[in-house]
Design brief:
Blueprint lengths: L1 E7 L3 E3 L5 E9 L1 E6 L10 E6 L1 H4 L2 H5 L5 E4 L11 H4 E12 L2 E8 L2 H8 L4 E16 L5 E17 L9 E2 L4 E4 L4 E4 L10 H4 L5 E6 L2 E6 H52 L3 H21 L10 H13 L9 H16 L3 H7 L1 H23 L5
Parallel strand pairs: 5-10, 6-10
Antiparallel strand pairs: 1-9, 1-11, 2-3, 3-8, 4-5, 6-7, 7-8, 9-10, 12-13, 14-15
């Protein structure tokens, strides 16, 4: 038997391409009352049909509601591959969710004319599907007596209608007639539930809807539901922005921590290079000895501000010229320096070097200490 569930389009948005996107409720669990003749039971005035939770949320049934065609009003019959191209104005998305007692499905309208109708006020939905009725008396969990149960629910399409019989809440059927055969015949697309209120009450604008707020189900007007859902989206967006900002802040803090850790490590390394008085005296003595040897090799050789290796190189160049060390390794230069030093020690220059040793040592100590201080200040960002 063909059946329909009605709902109202809630909060919507228009994409950059002009498509209309919305998220709507459809079928729900519970009991509904029908005219007996609509269910092929003219012997009964009314029939109460029960649809239990296991049937509505059965995985096999839920899967049939994904990627359904959306139509402008119900077609005369089931939508198939042969008719989808001519009657479809959009589609549902693939994800079908449970929302309390209801199914919730996202829809996307791609037909400009239908989108304009929705914007002008044609905003109720009626889900068309096929199901079976199993006859037999029973009682629903809330104590309501029923005469039949609905099973094997298979979704077929969702129709945009001017007004569903069930109003804005998801209910079986909308009872809207469909004109066929050139207007000579009219039939209803599916069974129509009997309204539980009189016509005047059904048309009141403050029909209540049940929505989830912070994990709790509350009943509010349709307008309030739209406002709350919009606010929930804004809160979710704000949370996303705040989360991104927090992540960026954490990344920046981690970067700063890394820089500070690197600087601390460098300071610690420099601290290791600070010598004790005994080590400093030994360094100065070695520097003095090197300068003495260099002066013995070449009296006027410059040593101030030079490294040990550069002093040796300067002494060798002063005696043998640049060609003697061009392209040579540091080990080669050290060896030539040692040879020249040994040769110089054999002459009278040795005595001169010994005489000036104390002065040289004093200058070398001051020069070494000054170099260490400058290097330390530069490592902590305060030196020149």
């Amino acid at each position: 038997m063909k059946m329909t569930d009605a709902a109202t389009i809630g909060a919507v948005r228009i994409t950059d391409e002009g498509y209309l996107v919305a998220n709507v409720r459809t079928a729900r669990i519970g009991t509904q009352d029908y005219l007996g003749e609509e269910l092929d039971r003219p012997d009964l005035d009314t029939v109460t049909v029960y649809r239990d939770e296991a049937e509505v949320f059965r995985k096999a049934s839920l899967q049939t509601f994904g990627l359904l065609p959306v139509t402008d009003d119900h077609p005369a019959d089931l939508v198939t591959a042969d008719t989808a191209r001519t009657v479809s104005v959009g589609t549902t998305n693939e994800e079908v969710l449970r929302d309390g007692e209801y199914l919730r499905i996202g829809i996307k309208l791609t037909d400009a004319a239908t989108i304009r109708k929705v914007q002008d006020g044609k905003r109720e939905l009626s889900v068309g599907y096929v199901s079976e009725l199993v006859w037999g008396d029973g009682f629903a969990p809330d104590g309501t007596a029923y005469q039949a149960r609905q099973t094997n629910i298979v979704g077929n399409h969702i129709a945009i209608v001017a007004a569903g019989r069930a109003g804005p809440l998801a209910r079986i059927g909308d009872g809207q007639p469909v004109t066929v055969n050139g207007g000579t015949d009219r039939k209803s697309w599916g069974a129509s539930p009997i309204p539980q209120t009189d016509q005047k009450e059904a048309e009141m604008p403050d029909t209540l809807r049940k929505i989830m707020v912070d994990g709790l189900q509350v009943e509010v007007t349709d307008a309030a539901a739209v406002a709350i859902e919009k606010l929930q989206l804004q809160i979710a967006d704000a949370a996303t922005v705040n989360s991104a900002a927090a992540a960026a802040s954490m990344a920046e803090m981690a970067k700063k921590d890394g820089e500070l850790a690197a600087k601390d490590a460098k300071i610690a390394e420099m601290a290791k290079s600070i010598l004790s008085d005994a080590d400093l005296d030994a360094k100065v003595a070695a520097r003095a000895d090197l300068i003495g040897k260099a002066k013995a090799i070449a009296k006027d050789v410059a040593t101030t501000g030079l490294s040990d290796a550069d002093i040796r190189k300067a002494a060798v160049v002063a005696v043998l010229g640049d060609a003697a060390i061009t392209g040579k390794s540091e080990a080669y230069v050290d060896a030539r320096f040692d040879i020249l030093s040994e040769d110089a020690a054999k002459g009278d220059t040795v005595a001169d070097a010994l005489k000036t040793g104390v002065t040289v040592a004093t200058d070398a100590r001051a020069e070494y200490v000054k170099g260490l201080s400058t290097a330390y200040l530069q490592s902590v960002g305060k030196g020149a």
